[in-house]
Amino acid sequence: MSTSWEVQQVVVDAGALERERPILDKYAADKKSGYVHFYAERQDHIMRAQPLMWEQADKSFQFQYLKKHGLKPEQRFLEYGCGTASAGKHIIDYLDPQKYVGVDISAESIRIGWMILNKYELFKKGPVLHVIPGGNLAPLMDLKFDSIWAQSVFTHCPPDIVKQVLNNLKPHLNDNGCFYATISRIEEGIVQKQFHDWYYTLEFFDSTAPECGYDFEVMDDWVHPADYLAKGFSKDTLL
Fold first, then answer.
1. Would the CA dihedral through 111, 90, 178, 127 be positive or negative?
2. Helix or strand holding residue 25 (H, E)
3. DSSP readout, 102-167?
4. Exposed, middle or buried by CB within 10 Å (0-12, 13-18, 19+), for 210?
5. pLDDT tens profile 10-34
6. What is the dihedral of CA 82, 86, 89, 90, to 10 degrees?
7. I want to staple 78 with a disulfide (CB 3.0 to 4.6 A). Which of 20, 27, 60, 145 is the partner?
8. What crossing angle do the helices spanning 107-119 and 34-49 adopt, rounded to 10°?
9. Cβ(64)–Cβ(130) under 8 Å?
10. In Å, what is the CA distance from 219 to each residue of 8, 164, 174, 237?
């Protein structure tokens, strides 16, 4: 549904593609946010089928990385694309009360996230989780954050949505704050694999990030522990 970029499309599983096509077609007429609604419904289906999958996944490496790079308990933190708070639970436990906000386009992910936070007795830390249909950040009101974390978000976003997210989040980032985002990196062009996996060059962000008001750099010490399992798709670059 991207309309202003040249994109190479790659199919690796035609059967899976056809199973997802009815969801995509359902929102195809909406050129502005149709893809976002498609991906939200796709995630809702996954969560309903495997509600405990992400609770069992060890996402503590994300928290450890953020702490290594200066995350302090008193800082206000936004996890954009928080999913079921499988990483968020570690961050919430570390931060001072009322410092964590998580947002996600998948209502089922947020529902399960609340269940996980209840299980680990993290309500006492005052975390906030919001469903943001279509990526609408209205629930954040005028809140600003010291850190924004978007792990495995841009890896599933077409270029128009990447730019939209960057623009929408900029007013919520403190002047000295950091916005971290993982990408699947390639050397040339923009590639869409299946419907939902997206690959970008560094050149794309080198031009897009400043347009949206950001300085841009690659975090060379980032390692995603599951990258060795991902055949042709990874989150091996952190910006």
1. positive
2. helix 14-26
3. EEES-HHHHHHHHHHHHHTT-GGG--EEEE-GGG--GGGTT--EEEEEETTSGGG--HHHHHHHHH
4. exposed
5. 888 888 888 888 988 898 888 788 9
6. -110
7. 145
8. 40
9. no
10. 27, 22, 20, 7
